[in-house]
Amino acid sequence: MILIVAIVLALVFALTLPGFATVGNLLTLARSVSVLGILGLAMALVVIGRGLDLSLIAAMAAGSAAVIQALNAGLPVPVALLIGLAVVLAIGFVNGWVIAFVEVPALFTTLATAFLIFGLTRFVLKTVIVYPPPTATAFLYLGQGRPLGIPMPIIMFAAVAVLVHLFLSRTRAGRFIYARGDNTEAARLTGVDVRRDIIVSYMLAAAIGFLAGIVSSASTASMNMQIINSTLIFDVVLVVVLGGVSLVGGRGSVLSVLVGTLLIGVLLNGLTIMNVNGQVQDIIRGLVLLGAIILDNRLHPRDEETARQGD
Questions:
Q1: What pTM value is reported for the model?
Q2: Are 241 and 292 in contact (CB under 8 A)?
Q3: What is d(CA 155, CA 148) in angstroms, rounded to the nearest whole number?
Q4: Residue 24: CB partners within 8 Å, gap ≥ 6?
Q5: Long-range contacts of residues 76-80, Cβ cutoff 8 Å, at least 24 apart
Q6: Interval 62-114: pLDDT, tens
Q7: pLDDT per position as a tens digit, 68-78
Q8: Do 215 and 117 contact (CB within 8 A), yes or no?
Q9: CATH 1.10.530 correct for 2-298
């Protein structure tokens, strides 16, 4: 249904908005939603497992800032990327460990982690925006390169989508995520190491979010730490839920994220061409997100008691 809506909306915009259906605009649309799509894939991993990661943007910003600072210190690009990856993996591990072993709900754990990361990065960096050195051409290529005329963000999004699809559909760990999201207790009784699986999920989500941060910071040659306080995390949740990844867990796929990303990309691109201001766009996104959550709640009751009440 969402795919049909996205196609119909794109056709309407193509017929009514001059410049929407041009190759240049379509490439711009795909490039602009690539980071959002990669973040959506990261969020989908934890949501399918009946989790939530509100610290995803904070981890992305912190990891990217660590890479940029390492580059400014003169370290080679591979070493800088490994440092940033280590930072986000540590964040993912802390999230997963607190949720799995301390049994604090994911909402509160990741929200607290996001605030903690924002405070720590501001304290360490002493600035809001960090810039990579102009000589780091290999790093900048990850966001600004155009192999065969295709922007690198699009290639990165496609590559991550394929890898996440293979992980969820072809590996035992991926199937465990679905099992845990569908019925945690049943998964535990069948021998799934649920606590380890939770930690792995949050670490993988953080690593994928790190890739989104690299693409974003390389594209703009900067990382603004204020992005942690932006509405981007809600856009990520919107993409995931709208595409059909159930907040109840156990349902959804990479295709769900792709469809949700397509719809949001088409919608925002069309609104931008129509010169709709940011406040109105926020209102529209909020209404769409609220409607998607209500629909998800009606279609996927959280437990048997809720299902009986719905009947």
A1: 0.88
A2: yes
A3: 11
A4: none
A5: 77/136, 77/138, 77/139, 80/139
A6: 999 999 999 999 999 999 999 999 999 999 999 999 999 999 999 999 999 99
A7: 999 999 999 99
A8: no
A9: no
